[in-house]
């Protein structure tokens, strides 16, 4: 069996592909992150259960979606800004967590792109460092989002 696995991995490498790396979010469920910058940003992450699979029978998932919402505003601009097209896909590369394909409509114009930053799996925080740069304007998204509901671990 080891020989077949080695040959399969080598064949994928030769054609420029590699076996999929499955990020594991555990447990499956709904988790809420929240933080305040200019506006309060709340992100609800949903992880569908993939168990049982090759990664075990305990509750876990290999994909996630996110729904960001701007909450009680500290600025009048926050009240008029809305995310459209949610839920958005979530990706993780072993240190950086990104909410991809986000569109934010504001009174000044629309912006789009990914909201991302550094995920600390011990502190359960997302330090957002990536702003929405596409669209008519650039929207700066800067905050540290803390896990306020649920308990999640992310394993690359």
What does this structure look like?
- The chain has one domain (21-155).
- The protein has 2 helices and 12 strands, in the order αββββαββββββββ.
- It is 12% helix and 47% strand.
- The chain has 156 residues and is mostly beta strands.
Could you write a compact summary of the structure shown?
With 156 residues, the chain is mainly beta.
Helix content: 10-25%
Strand neighbour order, sheet with most strands: 2-3-4-6-7-8-9-11
Sketch the topology as an H/E string, one letter per element: HEEEEHEEEEEEEE
Low-confidence stretches: 1-21
Overall geometric form? elongated
Q: Total domains, how many?
A: 1
Q: Sketch the major β-sheet.
A: 8 strands, antiparallel, barrel
Mean of all residue-level pLDDT scores: 80
Q: Which characteristics define this entry?
A:
disordered N terminus; two-stranded antiparallel sheet; 156 residues; 47% strand; 8-stranded antiparallel β-barrel; elongated; mainly beta
Detail the topology: elements first, then pairings.
Elements: H1 2-14, E1 24-26, E2 29-36, E3 40-47, E4 65-70, H2 76-80, E5 82-84, E6 88-92, E7 96-106, E8 109-120, E9 125-130, E10 134-135, E11 143-149, E12 153-155
Antiparallel strand pairs: 1-12, 2-3, 2-11, 3-4, 4-6, 5-7, 6-7, 7-8, 8-9, 8-10, 9-11
């Amino acid at each position: 069996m080891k020989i077949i696995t080695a040959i399969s991995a080598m064949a994928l490498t030769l054609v420029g592909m590699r076996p999929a790396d499955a990020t594991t979010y555990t447990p499956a469920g709904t988790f809420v992150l929240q933080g305040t910058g200019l506006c309060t940003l709340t992100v609800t992450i949903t992880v569908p259960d993939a168990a049982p699979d090759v990664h075990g029978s305990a509750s876990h998932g290999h994909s996630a979606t996110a729904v960001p919402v701007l909450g009680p505003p500290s600025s009048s601009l926050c009240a008029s800004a809305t995310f459209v097209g949610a839920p958005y896909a979530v990706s993780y590369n072993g240190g950086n967590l990104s909410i991809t394909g986000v569109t934010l409509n504001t009174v000044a114009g629309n912006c789009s792109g990914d909201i991302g930053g550094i995920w600390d799996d011990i502190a359960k925080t997302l330090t957002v460092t990536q702003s929405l740069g596409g669209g008519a304007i650039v929207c700066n998204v800067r905050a540290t989002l803390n896990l306020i509901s649920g308990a999640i671990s992310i394993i690359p």
